[in-house]
Write a structure and sequence with these properties.
With about 675 residues, this protein is an alpha+beta fold. The chain has five domains: about 140 residues, Rossmann fold, CATH 3.40.50.140; about 120 residues, Topoisomerase I, domain 2; about 120 residues, Topoisomerase I, domain 3; about 120 residues, Orthogonal Bundle (Topoisomerase I, domain 4); about 100 residues, no CATH class. It is built from 18 helices and 23 strands. Helix 1 links the parallel strand 1 and strand 2. The chain starts with a strand and ends with a helix.
Length: about 675
């Protein structure tokens, strides 16, 4: 019997695929990457054409040993990792490890014999956009080789990021504070947040006024807004003072009103495109209040269980099979009027979008309530993906829009007013994918009507600064500029948060003091690193590597040569931003003076006897805030707000007697007690 070994990344994916295959197939998981650059050293040979040194991480070694044993018994090895660059690289590394490439070559006789068996075994690569029986069967029937240019593109990105991180981070340690890091793309994201904050600080609000008139026609009352003064269009800031507004109000209260024209027309609203990674993260954020990280974790789970197609994509294309299935479902469920005769296609707007890929969609048209999805959050996300996909193949929503133009005349003053009506005539795609729209009804009006002003109301407004970036808005901006790719958006945002370069306030990012220092240092002395156009062009070059148009070393060489010279120069030129300060406090462990230092979480006290004495603690001004509650565990300590050491969680609550008392909670104990009392 044929013994085929199929290797995927995750156990869940392996289990789902295993359900579709009969005897003769063994599906195993690599549990992600089996080879990577080591964390502890640079591992890029700069003088050897940027050759990387890969190792098998400790956590992957046991799994690699198990996979080698199974591979030695197989008649065929199929690498079935995801279809993007990361998945292609995983397949390449898997093959290299199984064949004992480089320093991974076996040393024992048994290991050498095992490797020789594997070397005689054919390797194949398959990809699929969805985990369904049909998709797996098609993939197995159409295997291919590993796409080396795509692997090279991922490798080039990894090496570029390693060079920037390992070369630039020590510079930040020396010039600002220990523990900082710089990244090729994360630094651009940080710059966007800081630049926006500077815009907000520099913003000066302008006052302006709007005026509405409540008019009566027989028994009907409706509102119209002022849009023209002396036949000139009223701009947003046209009425800039209270005095100007009051003068117009006085005239409108005495004015004669008449209806000039009534226009009614049909307005059609198109459905949105099916989801890409970016738009899914944005919609899940606004509609479900999911963070992009949570969205991707849930989407990964849905994909691996065979419920949705691959969730890392920047394409809005849909397969013919999926649009045909949508048409059949919509016809049966809602009637012919809710289904299109011909499938609707969409044009990709994302820079560098992979046209051959497909949008995120359900693998079948089954209603969400009829699927066995136990997790409530995953079910909500599936419902969002399902409804958006169906909506993309439904007719436009049709509205009846009415525009009424009016004139108000007082003595020699003439004012123009307008009122609008908007009524839904046919819901179309809104039947499954609701969107907010303003439905406004106005009474039946005629140009012969006699109108009376009931009230004239001035309203004061002030222009507002641009909004801070939320996670979804930042991802959208990165995508618009062509920075990053679907698989990188979440890691980019996670890094600037975990490094304490930004903090969240009401769902929006605000740069921290240390984040602004890092940004100033980079924008002043390494402008190319944080230049949006430069970073976007590098993404384009990585795409060209993936298409086989350029060797992977060339963009790295073009970047590294001037970067190395610039870095060497700046080490000499740039002074340290923050110097250590003396304090009056003595170290309780060795009696030496404590020094005030600056780290990525702010100022702290450290013993001047370092490294012999490693005592360090918060400054009193930075000590955790008490919440006015005794510890429920020891009854002696006070509950204080704390933050995890690496800053991966915003905060938690614990006893200030730690380590003598280990009480800790991710929820505020005061709120928990309040809930219980209710």
């Amino acid at each position: 019997m044929k013994n085929t070994l199929i290797i995927v990344e995750s156990p869940t994916k392996a289990k789902t695929i295993g359900q579709f295959l009969g005897k003769g197939y063994t599906v195993e998981s690599s549990f992600g990457h089996v080879r990577d650059l080591p964390r502890s050293r640079f591992s890029i040979e700069l003088e050897n054409n940027f050759a990387p040194e890969y190792i098998i991480p400790i956590k992957a070694r046991k799994r690699v040993t198990e996979l080698k044993k199974k591979a030695a018994k197989a008649k065929e090895i199929i690498l079935a990792s995801d279809e993007d660059r990361e998945g292609e690289a995983i397949a390449w590394h898997l093959k290299a490890v199984l064949l004992g490439a480089g320093k991974q070559a076996p040393k024992t006789k048994a290991g050498i014999e095992q490797m020789e068996k594997i070397q005689k075994t054919p390797f194949k690569r398959i990809v699929f956009h969805e985990i369904t029986e049909t998709a797996i069967a098609n993939a197995l029937a159409n295997p291919r080789d590993i796409n080396q240019p795509v692997v090279d593109a991922q490798q080039a990105r990894r090496i570029l990021d390693r060079i920037v991180g390992y070369k630039l981070s020590p510079f930040l340690w020396k010039k600002i504070a220990k523990g900082l890091s710089a990244g090729r793309v994360q630094s651009v994201a940080l710059r966007l947040v800081v630049d926006r904050e500077n815009e907000i600080r520099a913003f000066k609000p302008d006052e302006y006024w709007s005026i509405t008139v409540q008019l009566k026609n027989n028994e009907d009352v409706f509102e119209a807004r002022l849009v023209e003064v002396e036949k000139e269009k009223l701009e947003k800031l046209g009425i800039g003072t209270k005095e100007s507004a009051e003068a117009i109000v006085a005239n409108l209260q005495k004015a004669q009103y008449k209806i000039d024209s009534i226009e009614t027309k049909e307005v059609r609203k198109n459905p949105p495109t099916p989801f890409t990674t970016s738009t899914l993260q944005q919609a899940a954020s606004s509609r479900l209040h999911f963070s992009p990280k949570r969205t991707m974790m849930l989407a990964q789970n849905l994909y691996e269980h065979g419920h949705i197609t691959y969730m890392r994509t920047d394409s809005v294309n849909l397969s013919q099979e999926s649009t045909a299935a949508a048409r059949a479902f919509l016809t049966a469920e809602f009637g012919k009027e809710y289904a299109l005769e011909n499938a609707r296609s969409f044009k990709n707007k994302s820079k560098g979008a992979q046209e051959a890929h497909e949008a995120i969609r359900p693998t079948r048209t089954t209603k969400p309530e009829n699927l066995a999805i136990k997790d409530a959050a995953a079910r909500k996300l599936y419902d969002l993906i399902w409804s958006r996909f169906l909506a993309s193949q439904m007719p436009q929503a049709i509205f009846q829009a009415t525009k009424v133009s009016l004139t108000a005349t007082f003595e020699d003053k003439v004012y123009g007013l307008r009122t609008n009506g908007n009524n839904l005539f046919f819901d179309g795609f809104l039947k499954v994918y609701t969107q907010s729209f303003e439905e406004a009804s106005i009474p039946d009006l005629s140009t012969d009507d006699t109108l009376t002003a009931v009230t004239v109301t001035p309203s004061q407004h002030f222009t507002e600064p641009p909004p801070r970036y939320s996670e979804a808005r930042l991802i959208k901006t990165l995508e618009e500029h062509g920075i990053g790719r679907p698989s990188t958006y979440v890691p980019i945002i996670s890094v600037i948060q975990s490094r304490n370069y930004v903090r969240k306030d009401g769902g929006a990012f605000i740069p921290t003091e240390i984040g602004e220092m890092v940004n100033t240092m980079l924008t002043t002395h390494f402008p190319a690193i944080v230049d949006i156009d430069f970073t976007a062009k590098m993404e384009t070059r990585l795409d060209e590597i993936a298409e086989g148009k350029e060797p992977w070393q060339k963009p790295i060489e073009d970047f590294y040569t001037p970067f190395e010279l610039q870095l060497e120069k700046k080490y000499e030129e740039v002074a340290k931003v923050i110097e250590d300060e003396e304090s009056e406090e003595k170290c309780e462990k060795c009696e030496k003076p404590m020094t005030i230092k600056f780290g990525r979480f702010g100022k702290f006290l450290a013993c001047s006897g370092f490294p012999e004495c490693k005592n360090a603690k918060n400054l009193k001004e930075n000590e955790p805030a008490k919440i006015g509650m005794k510890c429920p565990t020891c009854s002696e300590g006070e509950i204080v707000e704390k933050r995890t050491r690496k800053g991966r969680r915003r905060q938690f609550w614990g006893c200030n007697k730690y380590p003598d008392c280990d009480f800790a909670s991710w929820k505020n104990p005061l709120e928990e007690n309040s809930d219980k009392s209710d």
